[in-house]
Design brief:
The protein has six helices and no strands. By secondary structure, it is mainly α. The chain has a single domain, classed as dinb family like domain (Four Helix Bundle (Hemerythrin (Met), subunit A), Up-down Bundle). The two termini are 27 Å apart.
């Protein structure tokens, strides 16, 4: 089994801008249009970071996705996918005022259970897609960014910014994890 300490050669698929993940014509995040309005802008940034996470995982097998970073950390790309599914579910509780049951059990089970099995990988992607859609649907009923939500009176705006921050932070982790797995670099 390969370890994160086995250092692969750095490489990029991009040729136009070698510090990018993909060339502009191949980058699905670049729609060429700037959104109008605050809510549309927030949703655009969230969509971009969600897509970035998936792009960082693309093309890897179950073992590579489950590969842990530097010990004693339990972080892996697969763990990040599972973690963000768990977090999306938790955010829905902010909207409804309830606390949905955890997807993977006790705290940190999202990372601990990220094992190199294709069924676990497939389930993680399905969980993330389902939880994102459910949270998006719950938030769609609250288009006023100033509206206060049941959990601690958090505003819709604050929840949206927090979601973007969470994905952006973990995309930074995904950058480093992916580079350790196969050497691929780029924003």
């Amino acid at each position: 089994m390969a370890r994160m300490s086995d250092q692969p050669a750095r490489w990029t698929q991009a040729t136009v801008h070698p510090d990018m993940w993909a060339d502009p014509d191949d980058d699905p995040r670049d729609t060429g249009a700037s959104p109008d309005g605050e809510l549309a802008t927030l949703l655009d940034f969230l969509s971009g970071y969600r897509m970035t996470l998936l792009m960082k995982c693309e093309g890897l097998d179950a073992e590579q996705l489950a590969r842990r970073s530097v010990p004693p950390s339990t972080m892996s790309l697969l763990g990040l996918v599972r973690h963000l599914a768990e977090v999306e579910r938790d955010w829905r509780g902010w909207i409804t005022g309830g606390q949905p049951p955890r997807l993977y059990g006790e705290r940190d089970a999202d990372f601990h259970g990220a094992v190199a099995e294709q069924t676990v990988v497939d389930a993680a992607y399905a969980d993330l897609e389902r939880e994102q859609a459910a949270t998006d649907a719950a938030l769609a009923a609250h288009p006023d960014l100033g509206e206060r939500l049941p959990k601690d009176g958090t505003s819709v705006r604050e929840l949206m910014v927090h979601r973007i921050e969470e994905y952006a932070r973990h995309c930074g982790h995904a950058d480093l994890l992916r580079e350790c797995v196969d050497g691929r670099v780029g924003q």
